[in-house]
Task: structure prediction
Amino acid sequence: MKGKAGHVFQRLKQDKCYPDLMVILHVVHEDKLGKDSFWFPYFKLLRRQYNNIMFLTEPQMKTLLRRPGCENTYNLGVMMRRTFNNFYEWYKKNIEPWAPPEFQFTRDEILWGFNTLVTCGWGQQNGNGDKLMVPFSDIPNHRRESAQKASNRGFISAAKEYQAGEELTFDYGLLNDAVLAYYGQPTPDCRGLKR
Result:
C-alpha cells in the first residue's frame, strides 16, 4: 500500500494493532474513497445495515439466555459486543489522536466495517488471527447437504454441475446455532425473536 494509507498501516503494524481492526480500518477507508477505490464495484453491493445478534436489544438477549439451546448464541452475542467495543476503544485511544483526516471514522463507520468483516471475512474468529476478505462469499445461502463446500482458506468448490438459474448454496458444515447466528443466519432453535 502506498501513500498516506500505507504509512498509516505501517504505523498500525508497528503499534501492534489488532489484525482484524487493521482490516476493518482498511475496509472503511476504501469505502469512504467511493468511486476512487479499486473496491468500489464490490463495496456498492455490500449491505449498509446488518442484522445479527449484535443488534438484539437487552430484553431480546435475556430471552435468548432463557431459551433452551440458545445459551451459546447469547454468549456469542456478548463476545461480539465486547470485541467490537475493545476495537473501538483501541481506535479512539491509539489511532484517532494521530490519524490523518481520511482515517477519522465514526463509531457507526467502524461498526459497519466490523460487521462487514464478520460476514465477509474468513479466518480465525478470536480477533487475533489473520483474516482476509473474500468478495461475494456472503451471498450464497446456507443449506445442509449443499453441493458446495467452503473452507477457511477461502476456497469454494462445487461437488456437482449446476444448471443455469439454479441457486448456489453453501453447506456451512456442522455449525451450531451460535455460529450461524453470529453470521446472521436464522436457526431452528433460536427463531421467533421479533424486533
Observations:
- The first helix runs from residue 3 to 14.
- Strands lie at 121-123, 131-133, 141-142, 148-150, 156-158, 169-170.
- Helices lie at 3-14, 19-33, 40-43, 58-66, 71-94, 107-120, 177-182.
- The mean pLDDT is 76.
